[in-house]
Structures are given as structure tokens and as C-alpha cells.
Amino acid sequence: MPLELLQAGEGMCKASHDRYKSRHALVQNATAGAAGPRAPMLQMGVPVLTTDCPSRDVPQRGGSAVLPARAVCATATSSRCGDRGGMRYCIAYSRSPVRPYRKLARSYHPDVNKEPGAEQKFKDISNAYEVLSDDEKRAIYDKYGEAGLKGSGMGTGDYSNPFDLFESLFEGFGGMGGMGGGRAARNRPMQGDDESYNLVLNFKDAVFGVEKEIEITRLEGCNTCDGSGAKPGTKPTTCKTCGGQGQVVSSTRTPLGIFQQVSTCNTCGGTGEFSTPCKTCGGDGRVRKTKRISLKVPAGVDSGSRLRVRSEGNAGQRGGPPGDLYVFIDVLSDSVLKRDGTNILYTCKVSYIDAILGTTVKVPTVDGVVDLKIPSGTQPGTTLVMSKKGVPLLGKSNARGDQLVRVQVEIPKRLSSDERKLIEELANLNKAEPANSRR
């Protein structure tokens, strides 16, 4: 049976819903409060199925409309079933819900229907279509209802954008008045793709920032055809393969029926028009060229940082804007200094005598060599902080991290006879002194 949108007027909807509660499909109730003695509703506002909705538009048999096995009733007003002005919409389908979806979506699309609640109805209809058009979801819903969908991870709250769904189904069918058609959508300007570039920096350039000149390869507008892709002096003609629709429909006969699939026309690439291609760009309207650009790298970048250069990506098509250039940073390591976020790490080796008596050592930093005082009695593994000698905070060059200096005390493995004699004397002196005096 062909897909149809049926309307049952005042006093004509006498559904015996209780007999058909085991057969239900997902179409949200069009308005809240649409319930009555003859229109019991399931949970979550999902209407119960009926095959008893008479209509002037379908054959009658024993006072009931001859409908397929599944038919969904959803009230379109808050009136009760059978009240004056009450109207019920029935989506009757045999193999696919595409046609009734297109009719209902066209009626309730917010760009066409300005009534309060129209947008919510449009979303409800789109939610229903997503389940009805998916064999797995539809089977789960027919057997277990909405709770089954949620239990399987296919809940009704996780649908794709209903407006994207609407646009994809109306593409290739002439579109809607005032909303643009499929071919018009495919002929609209398209933004170019983004490009990427890997930049390797040395340690100090990453810390303080640097200005680099890089060479990139990208798609730019063809000068021969001014980006149109057509041979100069020629005019586009309607594609003979798709008849100007930009899409072709292929049919496949299966044991379950005939399935139709819509795909982009390979001849015209979905534009609906055919042109003699430009010899320079091959019809793309763009050619690949090399360009040198100056790039300012901010202070504080690190490996994994990403810089975005607007409008330096590939050129758009049909007058669309260019994409962006993304520069990915890779920083070379330093042989002496290590980096930990905005802090710089350094290990300083001192003799056991200097650790005991204290000393001043020269420490390399990103700002140059700086004197660092080692206090007397410094223990092995002590960390000394050199304030504001670290990496500038990315985006805030006046704020810097610290340089952390870890003191490593070196103990000699071999001693001269004089050194050993002095240390033994020191050890004896240490034993002779009271313990309290050494504290």
C-alpha cells in the first residue's frame, strides 16, 4: 500500500485503541493534554496504534479504514478525540516512513509554520522518523516500547539534529518553497578545507616566541576560470544524467520489497549542471600552489601546541571563504635544561665540602648564566627555587614560571692520604663533642 497522510475529521476517529496496544510506533503526541476516554495514551506521550481511523481518503471496510499493519495516530490539537474541531493525523506506512515524514515535516517546519509549538512538533516527527526508518530501533520499539529503546542505549533523547535530517531528505526533491532546494544547496558557496603544517622549534624559541617564515602548499582559486571550474567562454547546461536534480535514485528489489537509494550524481558532482571543464584546474576551480607566509609564534608554546592562522587554508568553491591553517608545534629538547609546564628543571652537582660549608655556583638558565648561592648544610636532593626564571605563561608573557634547581651532592669514591687523615680527625672531633652541641 502506498504511503499516505490521512486526516480524520470531527467525530470520525472511533479508534478502539485498547485492542491494539501491542502495536505501537514512535510518533510523539503533537500537543500536551491530548487525551480522552477514546484516546488512551502510552507513557511519555506516545499514542497507541489504531487501524480503526475512518477517512474519506481511503477505502472503508466495515466502518474502518483499510490501513497497513501499522498506523500511528497523533492528535494535532488539544481537543479530545471526537470533539468539534478535533483532528488526528495518521501516518500509514507499508515499507518506509519517508513519504509521511516529508509531508508532516513540511507542514510543521518552523520556517513555514509560525504557530506556537510547531517547532516541537517538528522535532517530535523527526524523532519518530529516526526510529521508524531504522529496522533495529523499530523492532525494539514494536516489541518493548520506548523503555526498550532506552535500555538498549537508543533512547529517544539522543537523536541527530532534526533540521539536518530534514535537509538530507528534501535534497534532490526540489526542496520547499522559500527554503531552497537540493540543487540550490549544492550550488551554494562552500568553505575551503583547513590545511595543517608541522613546525619544529628549538627550546629557547618555544620559551620566548619567535617569528618564522614558513612555506605551505594549498589550493588557490584558478585564475583561468576565475574559480568557476568551467572553460572560459562556455555556459553550463543541465546534467542529462540526473535531469538537473544533482542526485540519482537507484532501486533494488529484495524479498522485503523494493528499496530506493538516493546518491549524488557522478556526472555533475551533485550540482545539477554540466560544464566543459577548465583545462587549467580540471573543473575544480582551484589549483595547488606554494606560498610563503610569516608566522608569529607566541612565547610559551610547547610540543602539542596548535596555532590557528585564519583564512590561510584551501580556497573555497563557488565563492566560498577559504579554510584556516593549523600549525602544530614540536619542540626540540635541551641538553641541560628540562621543561615541566611553565617551570624549568636543572640538576646542580656540588661537592660534599661545598654542601657542608656552602658556596656559590653558576647555573645556566634561558636568560643566561646566573649565580646561585648554595646555603651551608644543604642536604642531598634539596630543591632551590630561582623565581621568575621559567617559561612565560602562554598568552601572558609578563607571567613566568620558576627554575627549580635540584642539588646533587657528590661523594668521592677515592681519597688521598691527606684527605683521609683530615676526615678521620673530623670524625674523632665529632665523637668527642656532646651530641647536644651538634644540634
Automatic annotation (TrEMBL):
InterPro entries (alphabetical): DnaJ, DnaJ_C, DnaJ_domain, DnaJ_domain_CS, HSP40/DnaJ_pept-bd, HSP_DnaJ_Cys-rich_dom, HSP_DnaJ_Cys-rich_dom_sf, J_dom_sf
SMART domains for this protein: DnaJ
Organism: Aegilops tauschii
A molecular function GO annotation: unfolded protein binding
A GO biological-process term: response to heat
HAMAP family from the UniProt entry: DnaJ (MF_01152)
Annotated CDD domains: DnaJ, DnaJ_C, DnaJ_zf
Family annotation (Pfam families): DnaJ, DnaJ_C, DnaJ_CXXCXGXG
One GO CC term, this protein: chloroplast thylakoid membrane
Domain of life: Eukaryota
Annotated protein name in UniProt: Chaperone protein dnaJ
